[in-house]
Every structure is written in structure tokens, then in C-alpha cells.
Write a structure and sequence with these properties.
21% helix; six-stranded antiparallel beta barrel
Length: 687
């Protein structure tokens, strides 16, 4: 018989190995949870966030201070030591600004949303929190001023649970603390400390620090040395790494000095770590004007050119060599000529100045106080253009004041927008010489993140003073509640072309034209950009959208920005005149790829004049014979799906004879699609 002793033994060993790995993992998770907030670890960062602007968190913070030994830790922040729990906390109370609240929520170990008895919540804040990612969340309901019976309290708890469900908060594992008496705060920390710890994805691969004190030493008229003190969180930190300060940019570390822990004595305080090599701060590449010069052709280039000459192609009599390049061969002509559903839009000729809506007042007597007629006229113009673009996408009348071959000399015809080839390295703008590109981005990204999570000079949980050199003195006026530093991975200071996959916010109804000035928040960085919108498709070419799609529409925003190696959420805001922001869309980082081809489409329209079977005389498509001869190789199509080719010109006023694959109707419209690659507007500024 068959001997199965070896198979049974291997199965038992495999089962035993899996159980051992499971026990090891459980031990590691338990040790990490016990050490959170203890000796050798950073304090638990708890961010108190009001559910809406009417909630005052000052009283909540003051009552929390009384639950242990409190020490100040910067603006709107304090340390708290609980001797009963043997845990340390850093309580952060951000200011009322939306962006400041989002910044604080990013780096929180625990987010505590403070509610009042009305159970109201700011829908904009809620949407932004969900979009950028949520750390562990607990809810604190302040009902100290509303004395109710136990029966009514049960009803209130049920009503609050319904509120959480309506607002899409997770209710399965979320803790809710109802503060009916001041004595309820005595056991609050016991509830806050028990949570399943996890951080946002873009923070797992890097070190970050929430400042407890900041000092600026002036070294020149406009720059100085910034000393930031706090606990390292996330991964470890090397002195050679660059760090990013939101709203101010990236800086080089001059040195790192370990400092005394505010709660525990440490023997390692006073150790100095300096960078052995200096990392470049340059964001742009040096432009070499001679880099684009043509080199002498190689033997392979000559052989390839000879083979291209030998390929014969049947063309109509009298066709020039340039026109023959664009002609389709007979087998290609019969294989079906589809115009893909991925089409193009938007024009890159105009530079649209930032336009903001005027303020809206409920008081009808003062409604026109800040009314701006010019802004209103511009908004009306954009609204009409958006409506026209929705009804007649990309359609354009052939100009009569100049030849079409001159007006559209940068455009080309494509047999199929989806399958036709387009070289991404062709006719690049000068701005592309200033940016960087990572070839084989996915593999390089994995390698760099693996290096970032390796052991560093200083581990997480160390209390340090970080000295940053050449920091502008304008950082004094920063309105942030507490300064936060983020370590950059290699090459993340370099500019490239960034693409955000976005979905329009349902409550946003503003008309936003391409290349308008917007505010982008990607991960821990925020900057002012002028993006180009395009369709989100899997093709190698993507149709440009002239306007940001309506509510619920999906699109991709492309712009110049620093490389980001982490998977990061992305939000787009519009800057208003009063300094506030309006949420436009939410999504995530798609890629950092300058080779993504975004094309603009122009549809020249004409009308059938005479029809005979499959042939038709078309007018208004062109206005002279030379334009007809120039665009003759380009395939035309109609709105009803017929496809055809221009055969010859009739007369001298732009009439032409067109043959279609099937008969067309008199009410149909003949379209000639032309395409041109467009690039983002060079505009980048940290916000």
C-alpha cells in the first residue's frame, strides 16, 4: 500500500507553523497596544474636533486636564500624564479653520468628535474627513447643561445612534461617551485608551512629528534656523532626510539632538546627530538647451528608414508625400473606423484668471453690498459656455477670417482615438525639461518604501529637537494650531506631473473651467495649482474635459506637483475671495506620470447640401479649395454614426464631395474630428 507517513508529518508541521506565526503576531500586537503611550513610545495623540462650529471644546479640554498631570505643549495643545493608567496623552485642540482641523486629524492616533445636545454635524467637515481618511474615531456627547431623566436619556442615545448612521459613521465598533455629569470624566480616559490603533496609509512609510515647542533663530534678514521639539512618530528618522512643513515647503535637517523627556528621565538626552551627506533641495531640473539637438542617425535608424520607404501604399492621384503619410491603406479602411467614446475637450489657449463667487447674504437689504458686476458677468459667461459645451461637445465653426490649415496646424486626424498610436515623447513643451520622471514607477516605489521602513538612526518614540536650516521668517505668521513635520522619501521633493482621480462632490454646483486656480490637498501636502481635466479611462490617450464634470461625474485632474510615492487621498477646493474654501471634488492620487497623454478634440461641422445614395455635397465644412486638399486624408463622420472620406473639392468656395459607408439623412451633421495634445499650465505654490 501507499506510505502516507511523510505526508501526514508535513501537514502537521505546516499546521503547527501557522499556529506559531499566529501566536507570534498576537504577541506583537498585544505588546504594541500595551506600549502605546508608555515609556519608550510617543504619547497618544488625541485630537478634539467639534462636530460643527457651534460646539465649544474649551470646556472639554479643561475637564480632561483635571484627570492627570498636565503640561503645555504648544498652541492649543497640552500633555497629560495619567498615573492610574500609566499612559501619556497629547491633547490637540485645533482652531476653527477647516484646513487646520483636517491637518490635525491626519496625524491623530485617536480622533474624538465632540457633539452637543443638538446632534448637528458640519457636512463639509464630515465629507473632508471621510475623503482624506479617518484614524480611530470615538464620539463624546456633552450634555452637562441639559439635565434629563433616565428614560429620556435612553431615547437620546437611540436618537444619537440614528444620527451616526445617517451621517455614515461606523457604529459597529465605535465608542460613544455621554457626559451627563462632571464626574463622568473620571472614567473617560479608561474608555479613550482602549482602541484599535492604526494610522493613515501615507503616514505608515514615513516619520512625522507633532511639535510641542517651536523656536526660530534669525540668521539673515529673511531666513533663520527653526528648532522644533517633539516626539518622533511613525517610522524612524535619519538626519539626511528632508522634512516637509505644510504650507511652507521642504527643508534640510541641520542636526537632530535628543532632548529630555517631559515625563521620564532619559540617559540618551543630549546626543547630537548630523547629516553626513547633504540632500538636494532642488525641485526643478536644470534645463539644457542643447539637450534637444538632433544626433547623428545610427545604423539601426537607417535600416528602419529604408524598410519604411519600401512599404507601398495606394493613394489617389495627385496626393503629396505629406498627405500620403496620413492616408489609410485599403485593409485599414475596411476594418471599421470607430471613434471611441473616449473623446477630448478643453482649450489650452486661454489662461483663465481665478474667479470667485460673490458673498451671499440672508439680509436682503445688504444683498448687493459686495456685489461685483465683472465677476457676475464672468460667471454668466462660463455658465453659458458650459451649457453650450454640454449640448454641442467640442463643436466649432470653421473660421472664415483665416485658413483652417493655419488655424489647426497643430492638430492631427486619428482613425481611432482608442487604438491609434501617439508617441508620448513627441513635441514636448519646454516645461517638461524642468520636471523629473521615475521610470518603472511601481517597482521603484516599492523599493524606496522598503528602504524607508528599514531601521533608522533615531527610532519612533524618541523625544528630539530638530534643527532646520534656511527656514523663511514668514513661518512666524503660521496660523496652524501646532506645527507638524513630515519626513520625505527619496525624490519626493522633485516636481513631476501628478494625476488625481476625482469624483465631483454632490453638493458642488460651481462652474469650474480647466486651468482655473484651485487648491489641492494630496496626503500631507497642500498647494495651489491650475489643473487640466480629462476623462478617467484605460486607454493610452485621454479626452480633455473643458469643464469639471457636474455633480457625481468622474474625471482626472493633471498638474505640476512634487512626486508622491505613497498612496494618498486627494481633495480639490476652490479659493474664495474671503479666504474660505469650497470643496469641489474628492478622490485619490492616480499616478505621477508625465507620459499620460491628454488630448483636446475639435469637431469642425458641415451640412449636407445635396445627397445621392452614399455620396453627398457638404458645405460650410471649409471655405476654400486649399483647406479641402490639406484635410482630405482625415476621415469624417456624422452625428448619426456614418463614416466617410472626402473625395474632391467642388468649386472655389469650400464645397466638397464626400462618400460615406451608408446613405445619410438631410438633417444629419458632418463632423471632422481633429486632435491635439495639451499639457498642464505651469503653476505651483505651497499653501
Amino acid at each position: 500500500g501507499r506510505n502516507t507517513d511523510g505526508e501526514e508529518s508535513s501537514g502537521i508541521n505546516a499546521e503547527y507553523g501557522d499556529a506559531q506565526l499566529k501566536r507570534t503576531k498576537q504577541t506583537q500586537v498585544a505588546a504594541e497596544k500595551r506600549g502605546l503611550g508608555g515609556v519608550g513610545h510617543a504619547p497618544i495623540c488625541i485630537v478634539l474636533l467639534p462636530a460643527y462650529a457651534g460646539v465649544d471644546i474649551t470646556q472639554t479640554a479643561q475637564l480632561l486636564k483635571e484627570q492627570g498631570e498636565a503640561q503645555p505643549a504648544g498652541n492649543n495643545s497640552f500633555y497629560l500624564l495619567s498615573n492610574k493608567l500609566k499612559k501619556r496623552f497629547q491633547i490637540v485642540c485645533p482652531s476653527d479653520g477647516l484646513l487646520d482641523q483636517l491637518d490635525a486629524a491626519k496625524c491623530a492616533d485617536l480622533l474624538v468628535i465632540v457633539w452637543d445636545a443638538s446632534f448637528q454635524v458640519d457636512p463639509l467637515l464630515r465629507t473632508c474627513l471621510f475623503s482624506q481618511g479617518l484614524p480611530p474615531v470615538q464620539h463624546l456627547v456633552m450634555q452637562l447643561e441639559h439635565k434629563i431623566s433616565d428614560k429620556d436619556f435612553t431615547v437620546q442615545k437611540k436618537r444619537f445612534l440614528d444620527t451616526l448612521i445617517v451621517n455614515n459613521f461606523n457604529t459597529s465598533n465605535t465608542k460613544v461617551h455621554h457626559m451627563r455629569e462632571i464626574s463622568d470624566f473620571n472614567n473617560l480616559l479608561w474608555g479613550l485608551v482602549n482602541f484599535k490603533h492604526h494610522s493613515l496609509g501615507f503616514l505608515r512609510e514615513r516619520a512625522y512629528l507633532i511639535s510641542s515647542s517651536v523656536e526660530l533663530q534669525e540668521t539673515s534678514e529673511d531666513k533663520g534656523t527653526l528648532i522644533v521639539r517633539g516626539y518622533l512618530r511613525g517610522q524612524g528618522l535619519d538626519p539626511e532626510q528632508l522634512v516637509h512643513i505644510p504650507g511652507h515647503g521642504h527643508f534640510r535637517i541641520q542636526k537632530i539632538v535628543t532632548s529630555y523627556d517631559p515625563f521620564y528621565d532619559s540617559n540618551s538626552a543630549g546626543q547630537v546627530y548630523e547629516a553626513q551627506t547633504l540632500t538636494s533641495l532642488e525641485m526643478e531640473c536644470e534645463v539644457d538647451d542643447m539637450d534637444a539637438e538632433q544626433t547623428w542617425p545610427t545604423e539601426d535608424d537607417l535600416v528602419e528608414a529604408e524598410q519604411a520607404k519600401k512599404q507601398a501604399k495606394r493613394v489617389p492621384k495627385g496626393t503629396s508625400a505629406y498627405q500620403a503619410v496620413w492616408m489609410l491603406s485599403d485593409d485599414e479602411d475596411d476594418s471599421g473606423m470607430e471613434e471611441s467614446g473616449d473623446e477630448e475637450s478643453e482649450s489650452d489657449e486661454e489662461l483663465v484668471e481665478e474667479e470667485d463667487e460673490s458673498d451671499c447674504y440672508k439680509d436682503s437689504d445688504n444683498y448687493d453690498v459686495n456685489f461685483d458686476a465683472e465677476v457676475e458677468a464672468e460667471e454668466l459667461r462660463k455658465f453659458r459656455e458650459a451649457c453650450e459645451d454640454e449640448q454641442f461637445p467640442d463643436e466649432m465653426d470653421t473660421p472664415t477670417d483665416q485658413p483652417a490649415r493655419v488655424r489647426f496646424q497643430k492638430y492631427r486626424g486619428l482613425k481611432s482615438f482608442r487604438t491609434s498610436a501617439w508617441d508620448p515623447m513627441e513635441n514636448l513643451p519646454r516645461d517638461y525639461a524642468r520636471i523629473s520622471q521615475i521610470r518603472n514607477f511601481r517597482n521603484v516605489r516599492k523599493s524606496l518604501i522598503r528602504q524607508a521602513t528599514a531601521e533608522k538612526t533615531l527610532g519612533a518614540g524618541t523625544h528630539v529637537d530638530i534643527y532646520l536650516s534656511d527656514v523663511p521668517l514668514s513661518i512666524k505668521s503660521s496660523s496652524s494650531s501646532c506645527l507638524t513635520l513630515y519626513a520625505l522619501l527619496p525624490h519626493e521633493q522633485r516636481l513631476s506631473v501628478q494625476h488625481l482621480a476625482q469624483s465631483r462632490h454632490p453638493l458642488s454646483d460651481q462652474v469650474v473651467k480647466g486651468k482655473e486656480q484651485l487648491l489641492a490637498q494630496v496626503g500631507f501636502r497642500r498647494y495651489v495649482i491650475r489643473p487640466v481635466f480629462s476623462q478617467h479611462t484605460k486607454s493610452n490617450k485621454h479626452k480633455m474635459e473643458r469643464f469639471m464634470p457636474a455633480a457625481g461625474g468622474n474625471f482626472v485632474a493633471s498638474y505640476y506637483a512634487p512626486i508622491s510615492l505613497s498612496d494618498s487621498p486627494g481633495l480639490l477646493f476652490k479659493l474664495e475671495q474671503d479666504g474660505s474654501v469650497t470643496l469641489l471634488s474628492t478622490g485619490s492620487l492616480l499616478s505621477c506620470d508625465p507620459d499620460r497623454v491628454v488630448c483636446k478634440r475639435v469637431m469642425l461641422s458641415g451640412h449636407p447640401y445635396k445627397i445621392h445614395k452614399r455620396s453627398a455635397v457638404v458645405r460650410y465644412l471649409f471655405h476654400n479649395r486649399e483647406d479641402i486638399a490639406y484635410f482630405r486624408p482625415v476621415q469624417v463622420r456624422t452625428k448619426h454614426g456614418r463614416r466617410g472620406h472626402i473625395k474632391e473639392a467642388l468649386g472655389t468656395h469650400g464645397h466638397c464631395k464626400v462618400t460615406f459607408d451608408k446613405p445619410i439623412q438631410q438633417s444629419d451633421t458632418v463632423m471632422l474630428p481633429l486632435y491635439k495634445r495639451i499639457f498642464p499650465k505651469w503653476h505651483f505654490q505651497y499653501f
